[in-house]
Coproporphyrin III ferrochelatase
Amino acid sequence: MSIVSAGSRCGVLLVNTGTPAEPRPRAVRAYLARFLMDKRIAPMNRVAWWFILHLFILPKRGRASGEKYAKIWTDEGSPFTVAHEKLESGLNASLQEEGFDVMVRCAMSYSDPTVRRCVKQMKAAGCTRLVVLPLYPQSAYSTTGSVSDSVEHALKKTRWKVPCDFIDNYHDHVTYIRAIAASIEHAGFQIESDDRLLFSYHSIPLVDIEAGDTYELQTGASSLQIASELGLDRNRWTIGYQCQFDKGREWLKPFSRDTLARWAEANVGRVFYVCPNFAVDCLETLYDIEYELKPFYFDHIRQAGRTPDSDSFVYVPCLDRSRAHLRVLSDVLRPHIEEANHG
């Protein structure tokens, strides 16, 4: 049991990208406008980009993305929102059971609840220290950097001068590595077989890497450590990237889609598809993989003259609201919370 110092309440802020309020074009457009106008996301001058985005992109993409979101929506609402609500309550309970005086909140960069609202709540609750954990195991200029911007802005707007620990990444944390490896085995991956493993990460513009972004190094390190935890030979796994936003810039490759096409032609056996940098399943996993990438892979198997089995392609779900995910987050956060509670 941890001994909590008087007056040492710690605010723990988890931050992820966000989700539309509902799967309707208007709500989707509002969400995408906030997301795509972020200075770290916009591909050009913000004034020119605003006109292009609002006049040409959002009207079409709002409808198309709305239809996609409708496919993954549940009776509880957005699966992304539900998962974060469960993580928030579960992590609060878990850390408090350890004896820590904490207030855990999940905020979204581009939807509700906002970073500013959560920061304001923590200030009002009397937190004396803030620990921020972006839910991106591998940090990137466009994700973790954006969270840093939002937190800095929120602290300034709420006039809260509080000690703040910002956890940049946890790509090589041992609990995270073991949790991803265990999720792959739980999905049915067999070490002594010809199963192949595709680590698929969100792609980023090459210009960010050229500017010093270490994301590619972190995705490589995570993949190598997870494969080592599984005891896999190098020829059993590879790395791919998905979800490039536009065609006007060069994006980090190889694309996962190209790898799937090559593997379908080569008849490599069962493919296990895992996304280690998505902490929670979202549109890019729940829709893109099930409705686009899996059919794409099966189509290429047919083109190669074979009939795909139902288990030829296996998606490994994200850690989501699982106990394993709570253990990962607790272990990543604990050293910072201990310092806050005893500092």
Summary: The first helix runs from residue 25 to 36.
